[in-house]
Structures are given as C-alpha cells and as structure tokens.
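okkk here we go again. third time trying to get the zinc ion bound version out, last two times i messed up the smiles copy paste (missing a bracket lol). double checked this time i swear
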Amino acid sequence: MTSAKHICTGAVLQCMDFRLRRKLADALEKHFPQEDYDLISIAGGVQDLLREDWREFVFKQFDLSRKLHEPSLIVLVQHEDCGAYGGTAAFGDFERELKAHQDEIRRARVLLEARYPETRIEGYLFRLSGEMIPLHEGETLPSLTAEVLHEAQ
Ligand SMILES: [Zn+2]
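finally!!
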C-alpha cells in the first residue's frame, strides 16, 4: 500500500499565545504564499527545544513533519511579551528581550542544524504589532536596534 506524498515548503515553530495567531499567520504569508507549512505551536516556542526534558517532544514534531511533508525550511518564531519567559517585564526592556530571544534562536539553531543539516533555518522575534524582526545567525542587532528600540519606547 502506498500513499501520495504531501510536500510542504516549511515547518514553523511558534508559541501557542492566542495574540499571535492572526497577525503571525498574515506575516508568514510572505514566506509561504500557499500556506504550505506545518505549524508546531507550543508554549514558549523554542523554549521547550532548549530544555532537555522537553527536547525530544519537540524533535518528534519536526521529525514527523520532515517524514510526512519534507519541509526544506524551518522558521522559528519567538515573540514579544511571551508569558513562558515572564513577559517583557522579566527582561527589563525591549532591547534585553530582543537580545535574549536572539540567543534562544541561536541555541535552537545549533540543535536543529545538527539534526537536520540539509534544512534552512530562520529565526524571528514577532512583535505584537505584527512586525517580524529577523534574528538569523550572522545578523547584527545594532543595525536593527535604532528604529526598533525607538519604536519600543
Ligand atoms: Zn508566548
């Protein structure tokens, strides 16, 4: 017995926070005009990938996505004021929040690249306004901070 393959472009890991849903789906349209991405939605986004006790659960989702739909792009989306991190208040200000999530994304990329070396990985911080701030490896925050931080005041 064989079944037809259903191929999709990407797999997205995002927080379950209801405030993201509509605006983030809109923002992701840019990546996936056909909406052909698997959505892994868990509290805290990459946080559980970085916790040893939950890592296998998260990998299982990516493994199944890959096995079933062969995505060539993984998009990691952290978000502003995430309750799993204690909200924006826990960071003190938006600059620290941005840097903390960049670090989370960097650590998550290391894990994912080791497991899925052929898959492209992008990371973002999603603002509740709907803005996606790229946090890819190699991108420097200072180029982002000027306008981003001004807006956060
Ligand atoms: Zn969250």
